[in-house]
Amino acid sequence: MSLEQLGKYVEDGDDKESKALAERLLTDGTDPLTILNTLTEAMGRVGERFAKLDIFLPEVMLAGEALTAVVELVRPRLPKTDTWTSKGKVVLGVVRGDLHEIGKNIVKLMLETNGFEVKDLGYDVDSLDFIKEAEAMGADFIGASSLMTTTMPRQKEIIEFLKEKGLRDKYKVVIGGAPASKEWADMIGADLYCENANSAPGLMTGLLVE
Amino acid sequence: MTTAYRIWEMIERSNTGPHMEEDEFLPRLFTPTLKKIIKKYEIKYDPDNPVQTDDDMADRLWQAGWELFREVGVYNTDTHRMIKVSDTEIKEALYTAKDQYRVGAGKDAVLWKHRTVEDPEPPFCIMSPDITCNEEYHHSMCLAYLKEPLLDGICAPILEESTGQLITSGGPTEINGCIQHISNLRLAARQLGRPGTFLVAVGTAEHDSGQIAVSDNEWGVRTTDARLVGSLTEFKTADTLLNRVVHYAQYGCYTGHLTGPIYGGWCGGSEGVAVTLVAYSLIGLVIHGAIFSQHFPFHLNYVSNTTRELLWSISMAGQSLARNSTLLHTSNGFANAGPMTEMLFYETACHALVSTVTGWHLWEMASARNKHRNRATPLEARLGMEVGHAVARQEMTREQANDLTLKLLEKYESNAADAPLGKEYQECYDVAKALPTQEHYDMYRKVKDELAQMGIEFPY
After folding, report:
1. Which domain does A98 fall in, by range?
2. Closest CA relative to residue B393, chosen from B441, B344, B353
């Protein structure tokens, strides 16, 4: 049994086998960080396959669950000097008046499986609640999705509220959703527009590096 | 008679039905049930033959869709409860549903009838850009679509702004926009001498308050028109949607059920999309009291349904519904390419061809991935409807349609990911006259002539 097999189990979304094998690997003395790196690589492959729709959303969700099961097992075994820190903290939601959340849910999955810590605010979220939750979490990002043209103004409203509260520079505001666009993001002063869920982890990581 | 007589039983169930956490509903109930059903009924995608001729699989697909609806029900995100129905209730609704409805008013009223597979009767043609447009072009676009000879019904473009203000869902600006929307539409219909044309309106209303505000036989949406109730992907509803169900039934207009199963999402692949489409038609009938379903399955990445994965689902679901029910259902095309590109004309023709031969009515045509403001014109819809009329009249078989589909796919399928955005309405049309520019018309004519050479027998 090997790290390679563990990666395969995670890719296949088999949380029970993933957890059992991770237990054995830890018992045999495998470095916990090595295990986590294996998981990261496996989830990278999952993301690539999903981007091409060689696999579908349910399979990505199962892989994400297998990943979580192993991470929860491994994390307490990490030496105190080693940490597996998140790439960034994100509050994520669908704006007020909008009940369509599949896009937001896919973004959440892609972010979590790529090492981001995500607080999911759900859908029909008031603009002020995005800000309150970001403050409470100490977030790096506010992610606001809209699937309808008539709820897009709420993305703008979040940015306006941030400005009025003197908090605009504290958060990177990321927008997405079917009717959103780069032009709209520029017009309302968002930091980033993500055209699809697959691009979100990379683009958001890049934004923090800037 | 519609099946809306059960609305209060359905509403009660949405308040008292079995409870489930919303986060559990799709991953723990919907998708696992769907996967089991696909296996049980041996539904199998065949990429080499987007237009299938397997009658037995079409019938198994009907059973699969029925079972999915019965086993999963519909989840109300406000009450966190599931609306469940019995086999008897589904049978009762199917028995009482009519196979034809007279829609529209006066001399412009049209009889909308159920179609069969390879039906020689042309499809019912609803034209719709499915997209938002600038306030200044809205009336012109309504005129331009209403000028289309084969139009049986219209769903107008959506306003993003009204009296210069951004429309916000659920707010006063939406009510204003909805009134502007229906006023432009009815004015355009009257100007063109077809005031009673069947309207599916108003798309500007995302919220129930906007819809309810325009119910008026004198100046608004009439009882001879239809309104849509959407489903939240997948198999979810909410009180704001059920408000519409109740209002439309009590107002007395026709209800249509709007659904968009997502390829790559919770449905999985082509098989899951096909099963879900069939189930959605039953949901529309039993829970929403709808006289028709307006289906726009789409690809998660492309937001289109003109590639073979989706054409297969459309062809299978169409045959399943046509063979096993007397229901009405429209196939809503979503193209990758934008207006005034040959690719959009090919995509529209292919979508209309597949849909018509497999028993659907037509709803054409969302272009440029249904994303970009002003990027839709009536001319691509015209070609789609002309293809629909032609292939029905010439009694094209599914085998012939499959051959032609494969030839058309060769022309555009490899460009799906990087399709051209095309041009905006005002670049393709004379806005004042609501007529296509010569350049746009010539491109349409060129593709139409090419289609004729490929075997489509256009009457003109």
Report:
1. 89-209
2. B353
